[in-house]
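cron nightly-structures :: item 1 of 1
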Amino acid sequence: MQSKQVTVIDHPIVARDLSILRQSDTDTAGFRAAMGRIATILAYFSLKELPLREVTIQTPITKTRGYEIDTDIVVVPILRAGLSLVDAIINFIPDARVGHLGMYRDETTHEPVDYYSNLPGGLENAMTLVVDPMLATGGSADDAIGFLKKQGAKNIRFISLISAPEGLERITKKYPDVSIITAAVDEKLNDDAFIVPGLGDAGDRYFGTS
């Protein structure tokens, strides 16, 4: 699936590693390793259209043309599961700044509850990458994007490992200016608002607290 707003990555490594992540008997070490590999591919696709500025560099032989990234990058993980996707991005962009948004899901309403925020300044001039492995109902993503826009962010991309159709519909309709990069679109949400077939709780499995 490719559209102007949503990019779903079709790659054999992603397919292999998603299978590892989905398996209920994958241990914490295996889960982290597979997550790290997919996160690197997600980061690559998320950063494909970065603006460049031309500079002059000195090689051992002569001066020549080179390039630098021509925008600030701010990575905002939705705590805590979003932390699993941060390192892959800052490996590409070591000077990226990292903010944090803390949310948890109310087990009754299935809606996000905010409990923490810490964001760098200058969001209005930066590319802001919001990262969360699971885009389920879209509640946390909606809350995070809306909050960031109120703080001045204009160029926002949302990066997820697995998305549900319900979450994609919610975000694409409400925020048509936000690009979404995901590794898979699953079948649906169940009655408890978990993605089906999904992989369970990404945060618990990544941090070994399940």
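cron nightly-structures :: done
The mean pLDDT is 92.
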